[in-house]
Design goal:
The strands form 2 sheets. A two-stranded antiparallel sheet has the order 1-2. A two-stranded antiparallel ribbon has the order 3-4. By secondary structure, it is mainly alpha-helical. It folds into 2 domains: 88 residues, no CATH class; 32 residues, no CATH class. The chain contains 6 helices and 4 strands, in the order ααααααββββ. It is 47% helix and 8% strand. The longest helix is centred in the last third of the chain and has 17 residues.
Length: 132
């Protein structure tokens, strides 16, 4: 749990031994789907499946740069390949990835007159480029 979740849980009035409980009966919530549907209805948002929250969480973590291994661990997956089922990166991530690569390449090479060169090994790859 992150600090926001811990702080939020600490602020909840302890009316039951359970974190999630029916406020009328004080008993634990036995069916998360029913509670989620009711919360969505009260918040006036379209209900999806509870399981969709895993997809949403994985996608948000991936688009904000969390690595596959960490996402897999948080979601309880033994294999990072499962993340590809859950995370749905937006198409603009491909552009971002290419831009990052372009930055790496431009940082690595420098133009010297009409010759591109790197500062370390100066191994000539072509007549006009040098590579580290």
């Amino acid at each position: 749990m992150n600090a926001m979740v811990v702080d939020t849980l600490k602020k909840i009035k302890h009316e039951s031994d359970c974190v999630f409980f029916n406020p009328k009966t004080k008993e634990r919530i036995k069916d998360v789907k029913t509670a989620l549907k009711a919360a969505c209805r009260r918040a006036e948002i379209e209900y999806s499946r509870f399981h969709d929250l895993r997809h949403t969480a994985a996608t948000h973590m991936l688009t904000r740069g969390v690595d596959f291994a960490t996402i897999a661990e948080i979601l309880g997956h033994a294999d990072i390949r499962m993340i590809m089922r859950y995370a749905h990166p937006p198409p603009e991530n491909r552009r971002k990835a290419v831009d990052i690569l372009a930055g790496v390449i431009s940082d690595k090479y420098r133009k010297v007159g009409t010759i591109w060169a790197q500062s370390e090994f100066k191994i000539c790859v072509t007549d006009s480029f040098q590579y580290n």
